[in-house]
Amino acid sequence: MATNRAPPSEQEIKGRIITHMNTQHSRELSHYLRHYVGLSARAATASPAIQDMSLTGMAIKTLNGTYDVPFSPPLSSWAEARPRVIAMDVTAREALGISDIYLTEYAWPRGFDWVPLGGVVFYYICCVGLPWVVPGSGIWDTLEVVFPGGPEWFLWIVRTIFWIVFGIHVVEVFLLDRWRLQKHGVPRFSRVWWAWTSNIFFEGVTTWNRLDSIIAAKRAEKEGKKH
Description:
Blueprint: H1 10-24, H2 26-37, H3 41-44, E1 49-54, E2 57-62, E3 65-70, H4 81-96, H5 114-128, H6 138-146, H7 150-181, H8 191-203, H9 206-226
Antiparallel strand pairs: 1-2, 2-3
Domain DUF2470: 15-88
InterPro entries: DUF2470, Haem_oxidase_HugZ-like_sf
Keywords: Membrane, Transmembrane, Transmembrane helix
């Protein structure tokens, strides 16, 4: 004989919501802390987890403390919890300039990407090797034969453009972090962050194209799932 199962209690519903948010949506919790509490990105991503929750708000704990994030207006029932936390995340992401497409992987250079990468790496090797470019050395003799203008011109070029090359690539690291990596949820100094920033420092502009193609593919895949 079938028995009627009692509906879950409010405490059980709250427990399920907390467990789901803590296990599946820690990224969203960090968004709440950044937007509604004003924490820095580093502080907000320090293992955020809901410690307690009520119809009036959430208490989110991190390694640095516990912070109250209110529901405004308060929930009238737990049935409103899911659409509310989704809406709060949309509001937080828009205010923070964070996309709903997250970059979680690194992609190696491909095809033509290796050309600028090889060129910049070769240039830095030339910079490191300057102390060995002296009259009478094998490098000096080789440059007299193969390099237009000879070793003197080689030394002048390498030394003159160093700060230009270095400065351009440092700026590209800064802009990639600000315009792409932070926007697409890559934590600073994470493994993925180091991979992309190191890459653009040596490769340059083609890094943008490769990263944007990944983002575009993720966007297309997400839009396809909606239909």
